[in-house]
Amino acid sequence: MGLLQPEPGLLIWMTIAFLIVFGVLAKFGFPAIQKTLDERRKYIDSSLEAAGEAQRRLEGLQTEMDGVRQDAYKQKSDILKSAADAREKILAEARQRAGEEGERIIAAARLSARNESEAILREARHQVAMLSVAVSEKILRGKLEDPQAQTALAEKLLSEMERGKAAADNKEA
After folding, report:
1. Which among 162, 50, 69, 171 has a CA at the least distance from the CA of 118?
2. What are phi and psi of 39, to 5 degrees?
3. Percent of the chain whose predicted confidence (pLDDT) is above 70
4. What's the whole-model pTM score?
5. Residues 23, 29, 35, 40: is their CA dihedral positive or negative?
6. Would the N or C end of the chain have less CB density within 10 A of its end CB?
7. Is-contact 128 164, C-beta < 8 A?
8. Exposure string for 127-142, b = 16+ CB within 10 A, e = fewer
């Protein structure tokens, strides 16, 4: 006989040995293998679940980061706008103060010029009056005896004073 045609006794012992090995494996081997496979499956499922949770958290953080970035850009633009408004306000106030100061200086200069002009006119009038008194005094001394000469001289002085006053008034205007 050969390998291709086993003897019936050998075939029975081989079947019995196979059933014993299969029974031992079924009782002790297969449950251990199944337990290991179940643990491995649970570990893979939990790892996939953790990876999915990490992906969701990452997407949430990305969304939150985008929101924070947009808020930062908005705050930056608000701060820049606020700074530009403050700058414009400060410049407007400075211009207004400069204009007011310029007007005050111009008004003071006009007042000073008017006061100086009036002082010059008073001085000129005073000098004219003094000159008139001096002339009158000389005339009175020289011609106190002749009434016609006194009258003509007084009229001449009055006309000269009126011309001097008209010329001074023209200068003021």
Report:
1. 171
2. -65, -40
3. 91
4. 0.39
5. negative
6. C
7. yes
8. eeeeeeeeeeeebeee
Q: Are 121 and 172 in contact (CB under 8 A)?
A: yes
Q: Across the chain, which distance is largest between two alpha carbons, in Å?
A: 198
Structure confidence by residue, pLDDT tens digits, 59-83: 999 999 999 999 999 999 999 999 9
In angstroms, the CA 42 to CA 22 distance is 27
Whether 157 and 136 have beta carbons less than 8 Å apart is answered as: yes
Q: pLDDT of 109-158, one tens digit each?
A: 999 999 999 999 888 888 888 888 887 777 666 655 667 776 777 778 77
**CA-CA-CA-CA torsion sign (68, 74, 80, 85):** negative
Q: What are phi and psi of 89, to 5 degrees?
A: -65, -45
Which residue do the tokens 């000129």 mark?
124
Tell me how far apart the alpha carbons of residues 63 and 76 are, in angstroms, rounded to a whole number.
20
